[in-house]
Amino acid sequence: MNEIHVFWGLYIASAIIAVSMLVLLFFVSAPYGRHIREGWGPSISSKWAWIIMESPAIIIFIILYVISDRRTELVPIVLLVMWMLHYIQRDLIFPFFLRTNKRMPLLILLFGLIFQSSNTYIQARWIFHFADSSSYTISWLTDPRFIIGAVFFIFGYIINRHADLVLRALRKPGEKGYKIPFGGMYKYISSPNYLGEIIMWIGWGLAVWNWAGLLFVFWTLANLLPRARSHHIWYKETFPDYPEERKALIPFIY
Ligand SMILES: NC(=O)c1ccc[n+]([C@@H]2O[C@H](COP(=O)([O-])OP(=O)(O)OC[C@H]3O[C@@H](n4cnc5c(N)ncnc54)[C@H](OP(=O)(O)O)[C@@H]3O)[C@@H](O)[C@H]2O)c1
User: Fold this and answer.
1) What is the per-residue pLDDT across 39-68, written as a single tens digit (0 to 9) for each?
2) Ligand 1: which residues within 6 Å by Cβ?
3) Least CB-packed of 78, 180, 212, 238 within 10 Å?
C-alpha cells in the first residue's frame, strides 16, 4: 500500500466521521465551555486543552512544508501564510487571553488532537505533495477562485477575531459568569465567531480548490452548525431579555 491509499483512506474515514458528528451533535452538545457537564471523565484546563489540541495544525503543516519539493514555490508559500495567520493566533495567542476557569474533558482533547492531526495532514499533503504540478503555478493567484477565496478568508477571519474579542471583554479578569454580548455581528446572531470561522474555511476551500479544502468546510459546518444552535437555545433559556430578533448563525435566516 502506498501513501496515496492511506491518504484517501483517511479522507473517507474523516468524511464519514464528519457526517456522523453533524447528526450526533444536534442531539448531544460537545461538553466544553457552557455545555460542560459531569460524566465525561477526567479533564484539564481549557487553556491548555486549546494549546495542545490545535498544536498539530502548526507542527504538521510546517513539517510537510519543509520536506516538500514545492517549498520555494510562491502559491504554496501564500497558502502556508494564510494557514499560519489563523493557527498561530488560535494556538499560541487565543488560549492565553481566554477569561475562563472551565475545564475540558480529555476525551474532547483527544478527539480534537486526532481531528487536527488528520485534517492538517490532508490539507498540507495535498498542497505540498499530491496536487497536480499545474494546479498551483503563479497564475493561480489571479484566478477568481483564489481571489474570492482569499477575500472570504480575510473577511471571515476579521468577523471571528472581532466576535471572540467581544466575548473576552464581557468578563473582567477573575469573573466567571455569562452576559449577553452586543456589538458588531452580535446585533444579528448569537455566534458570529462561528459564522466567521465558517466563512474563513469556505474561503480556504475556494482558494485551494481541492477535495481536501471541501472536507475541511464540511468538518467546520459539522462542528459549528449544531454548536451555534445549542448556544442560541442556551442564551434564550438563560436570559429572559435575550434579543428576540437575534438568530443563531445566519443573519435574518437561522
Ligand atoms: N473550526 C472548528 O471546527 C472550530 C470548532 C470549535 C471552535 N472553533 C473556534 O474556536 C473559538 C472558541 O470556540 P468556543 O466553542 O470555545 O467558543 P465560545 O463557546 O463562544 O467561547 C469562547 C470564549 O468566550 C467565553 N464566552 C462565550 N460566551 C460568553 C458570554 N456570553 N459571556 C461571557 N463569556 C463568554 C467562553 O467562556 P467559557 O469557556 O466559560 O464558556 C470562552 O472563554 C471560536 O473562534 C470558534 O470559532 C472552531
Assistant:
1) 999 999 999 999 999 999 999 999 999 999
2) 33-34, 46, 98, 100, 102, 160, 164, 167, 170-171, 178-179, 181, 193-194, 197, 220, 223-224
3) 238
